[in-house]
Amino acid sequence: MSSSTLVSLPLMKPKDVNTLHLFDLNKLQRQSNIPTQFMWPKEDMVGTDGVFDEPLIDLEGFVKGDEIATAKAIKLVKTACTNHGFFQVINHGVDADLIQAAYREIDTIFELPFNKKLDFRRKSDGYAGFSFADRFTPILPWKETFSFGHRGMNSDLPVVDYFTSTLGQDFEQAGRVYQKYCEKMRGLSLIIMELLALSLGVDRSYYRKFFEDGTSITRCNYYPPCKNSDATFGTGPHTDPNSITILHQDQVGGLEILAGDKWLAVPPRQDALAINIGDTFMAFSNGIYKSCIHRAMVNEERMRRSLVYFVNPKEDIVVRPPEDLVVGSSRVYPDFTWSYLLYFASNHPRTNVRTLENFFPWLLSSQPKVHT
Asked: Where is the Fe2OG dioxygenase domain (predicted)?
């Protein structure tokens, strides 16, 4: 298939909303015991075994073209991505005041009445809107989310339009904050793509061109306090299906990654952004770089928030590694389009780390029609 191939997605039965359990976590956080739907098996509640303390990657020298700084950044990225798929960057060009403004808008969004948020629930086959711990049924995460998309090359204000049309004119300022936040994240994501390409030994611009006009997804995460925090997760162990994820966590912390066979806590740093490799980029690298297995813990006493930017290629881009990464070795994954993986991930509960393993059998069985 060429990169211009369009596919007809298979029809899928919409989820029966009557079978979904919708919980208002703002009410549940005051209870001494949580509902059983939030209680994970004891074997999944593996304890934290240390702190992630690998070096931060300073992007300033890389962006300026400093050869020594670039060589150091390439080495650190390659080591991190081949081992566990996670690293943190500083001097990334996203202003601290903008990040804090985005957090203030998170508080405003999730303070909306539960019934109003229900009116703008994420649809069964989409990604935008509110989600109320119903995506990972039957084991639920202790969180609420609000998500929206951002098209890379758009020069208008689609994020502002989405906020005002969905939440109302009172949220125009929130839309403007997130519009600017998305634009900054998009610029950073293209820099990260160049760094990843160089670290893999391919042309600097190889990956960047696939993402310049992709629709990325921003997600605001809200984790209320939980009196049974030792029995549930904010988000259970998983990998992200997208290419890379850029995350900022507030001062409460809770992000953990699996490195080797140990769960390591990632201490929050307000000047750092966390980058993790997702399933799609793992396929783009022919399996050389690992999709990061991570989870989010909840706090017994304090609310936790995070800002997540999921970086995606254009929907009809065929995901395949460059020939330089295949010569002398076999292909690890077959070709697929991001639109198919997004559709699969949006319609299947993901309570484990085997998204790609489950995706390819489904893709073959769906027998997609290809239009050129």
From this structure: 213-313
The catalytic position among 122, 304, 305, 320 is 304
d(CA 264, CA 266): 6
**Which structure tokens are listed for 236?**
């259970």
Q: How many CA atoms lie within 13 A of 118 on its CB side?
A: 9
**DSSP track, 296-333:** E---SSS-EEEEEEEE---TT-EE---GGGTTTS--SS
Angle between helix 96-110 and 172-200 (nearest 10): 130
Q: Are strands 215-223 and 144-151 parallel, antiparallel or unpaired?
A: antiparallel
Q: Is 176 a catalytic residue?
A: no
User: How many residues can be counted in the chain?
Assistant: 372
Q: Which residues, listed in sequence order, are joined to residue 177 by a DSSP beta bridge?
A: none
Q: What is the mean pLDDT of each run of 10 residues along the chain (372 residues)?
A: 36 39 76 84 90 96 96 98 98 97 94 89 79 67 92 73 93 96 96 98 95 91 92 91 96 95 95 97 96 95 95 92 88 92 78 79 70 37
Q: What backbone torsions phi and psi does residue 64 show, to the nearest 5 degrees?
A: -80, -10
DSSP output for 140-204:
PPS-EEEEEEEETT--S-HHHHHHHHHH-GGGHHHHHHHHHHHHHHHHHHHHHHHHHHHHHTS-T
Tell me the CA end-to-end span of the chain in Å, nearest whole number: 8
Domains of the chain: 6-11+47-371 (2.60.120.330)
The answer to whether 300 and 319 are in contact (CB under 8 A) is no
pTM greater than the 0.85 cutoff: yes
Residue whose C-alpha is closest to residue 127's, from 214, 211, 218, 224: 218
**φ, ψ dihedrals at 8, nearest 5°:** -95, 115
Q: What is the pLDDT of residue 135?
A: 54
What distance in Å separates the CA atoms of residue 327 and residue 286, rounded to the nearest whole number?
11
